[in-house]
Recover the amino acids of this structure.
């Protein structure tokens, strides 16, 4: 977490690997890969795995639970929530995460469909929020917060009611246009872990650029990885580092056990410059050994970068505030 020069991450895109090699400076990425393969032969440096597709030509997009999930946007994302105030206690939140793989030639149609439902949601008073992202491995992502598993049915019921308000024919036509742009979709639940997150008062406020890391944990090693993250939180808190991350544990639908975290910045340049400063901070050097120790408990590490998409996100609260300003 934060120690990029000691994190064996690589992307199959050459420009990203070259960018990381420029940024890590004193430790070559490829040497790091060899080193960590010796530490743990099971360490996998792969992109986040693709999920299972569900779009079959014979599936009625409105009369099945798969269809309900599709018209909930059939989108994906990851748990970026507003930083909490220092010392504020939070109950673990459940996040519904969906990953959508769009046919490259239909990207514009896909985004147009999402913007269309944003307009409809505002017009018909949909009381649900989502946060949208576009990822550099050609995925889109949106995240939805649900109260708990008991509230999942009410979540789908809310969307069904929205469909009735919009009109079944209009809703079905929209769903068909959306599905025509998709290759496949997967979804999962993640539980926020505030105790493993670092969100100080001086945390970066702009989350245009995103970095998601996924720690695939060896079964039975969950406690050790959680303890490592708590030590990272303590280390960064002690030195009041102007950085931040949100952490979550994978639940239903994930390749458990897995712990994910997301970091952010105003731009790729701003983010990686901050990471350089962290790597060069002598007071944070204990984090190097801590990360290497953490790796012993992992069966793999994966990452992806991307950006927040305000134009593909929706919040009824923001809509209400906008209406008040124009009255």
């Amino acid at each position: 977490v934060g120690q990029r020069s000691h994190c064996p991450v690589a992307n199959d895109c050459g420009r990203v690997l070259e960018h990381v090699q420029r940024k890590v400076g004193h430790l070559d990425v490829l040497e790091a890969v060899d080193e960590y393969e010796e530490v743990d032969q099971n360490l996998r440096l792969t992109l986040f795995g693709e999920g299972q597709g569900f779009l079959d030509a014979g599936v009625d997009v409105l009369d099945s639970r798969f269809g309900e999930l599709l018209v909930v946007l059939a989108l994906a994302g990851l748990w970026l929530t507003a930083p909490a105030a220092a010392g504020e206690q939070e109950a673990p939140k459940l996040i519904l995460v969906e990953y959508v793989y769009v046919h490259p030639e239909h990207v514009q149609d896909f985004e147009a469909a999402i913007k269309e439902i944003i307009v409809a949601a505002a017009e018909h008073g949909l009381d649900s929020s989502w946060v949208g992202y576009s990822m550099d491995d050609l995925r889109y992502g949106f995240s939805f917060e649900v109260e708990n598993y008991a509230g999942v049915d009410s979540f789908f019921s809310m969307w069904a009611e929205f469909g009735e308000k919009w009109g079944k024919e209009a809703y079905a036509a929209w769903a068909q246009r959306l599905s025509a742009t998709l290759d496949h979709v997967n979804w999962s639940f993640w539980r926020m872990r505030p105790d493993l997150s670092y969100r100080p008062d001086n945390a970066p406020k702009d989350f245009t650029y995103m970095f998601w890391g996924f720690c695939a944990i060896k079964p039975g090693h969950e406690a050790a990885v959680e303890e490592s993250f708590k030590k990272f939180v303590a280390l960064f808190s002690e030195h009041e580092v102007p950085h931040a991350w949100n952490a979550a544990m994978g639940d239903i639908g994930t390749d458990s056990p897995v712990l994910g975290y997301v970091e952010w910045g105003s731009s790729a340049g701003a983010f990686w410059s901050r990471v350089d400063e962290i790597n060069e901070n002598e007071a944070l050097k204990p984090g190097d050994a801590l990360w290497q120790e953490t790796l012993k408990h992992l069966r793999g590490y994966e990452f992806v970068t991307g950006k927040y998409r305000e134009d593909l996100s929706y919040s009824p609260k923001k809509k209400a505030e906008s209406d008040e300003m124009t009255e």
Notes: The beta strands are 94-102, 131-135, 139-146, 182-192, 209-217, 246-250, 258-265, 298-308.
